[in-house]
Design a protein that fits this description.
The protein is 52% helix and 18% strand. By secondary structure, the protein is of the alpha+beta class. The protein contains eight helices and seven strands. The chain starts with a helix and ends with a helix. The chain has helices at 3-20, 24-28, 31-48, 66-75, 110-121, 142-145, 166-186, 194-223, and strands at 54-61, 79-83, 89-94, 101-107, 126-131, 134-140, 162-163. The chain crosses the membrane at residues 162-185, 197-216.
Length: 225
């Protein structure tokens, strides 16, 4: 590869590895195989010209925002290839002929997923990832709008990679604080017995769990489908 391309790939892979926080072989596979895949893609790109190829970008969001963000980034030409093991959206965008993409999220269990995939396929939707109770589908806008789906000047790749709603962050932090305060109060020498300490801890953890479940169910109701 040209040195400039090597430097760009190293930066992309390093940033991805830092965010993954897991053994690199699990994310990229054996080094030799990774090198083969990268050089094969580079060779194919070079055959089409120096400006050919695709941009890559990986991002994540909470369930409250991801449907809206998928719509936004799909309109910027980003195609979700898959969801990685951490639930992040692994995207690409063609440099020469970027197209708009549409997305939808469906709540479906493993048994329902196959039937759902078959039904949506008749409308041009194809699966692009699964995370928890959600299945994600994509469709090129060209299937609906034709040539109007092509982007003449797509925006630069977003610098931000993580999108979490402030309300969700506050809820999670509050849940943790409730549990910690309950435990510390029980052990602070206020006359509480070990049983009371345990009860306080359980109350705090239960409150945190209920708050988290409420946010998750709200997100599911709001954005599923």
């Amino acid at each position: 590869m040209p040195p400039a391309r090597v430097d760009a790939l190293v930066r992309e892979l390093a940033a991805y590895a830092v965010e993954a926080r897991s053994p690199l072989v699990e994310e990229f596979g054996p080094a030799g195989e990774l090198a083969d895949r990268l050089t094969d893609r580079q060779s194919a790109d070079a055959a089409d010209g120096p400006e050919a190829g695709a941009e890559t970008w990986v991002w994540t969001a909470d369930a409250l925002q991801e449907v809206r963000l998928l719509e936004r980034f799909g309109g910027q030409g980003w195609e979700v290839e898959r969801l990685d093991r951490l639930g992040r959206f692994v995207c690409r965008r063609d440099r020469q002929h970027p197209l708009r993409w549409a997305y939808r999220r469906e709540a479906a269990g493993p048994r329902e997923r196959e039937r759902l995939t078959g039904r949506l396929a008749t409308e041009g939707w194809e699966p692009c990832g699964v995370w928890g109770p959600f299945a994600y589908f994509k469709r090129p806008e060209a299937a609906v709008t034709g040539p109007a789906a092509r982007l003449s000047r797509p925006p630069a790749p977003p610098r931000r990679r993580v999108y979490f709603a402030p309300r969700l962050c506050v809820t999670l932090v509050a849940s943790v604080l409730v549990a910690v305060v309950m435990v510390r109060l029980g052990a602070s020498g206020t006359g509480s017995t070990d049983g009371e300490t345990l009860a306080g801890a359980l109350v705090g953890l239960a409150a945190g769990g209920l708050l988290g479940a409420r946010v998750w169910k709200s997100a599911s109701r709001k954005h599923s489908g």
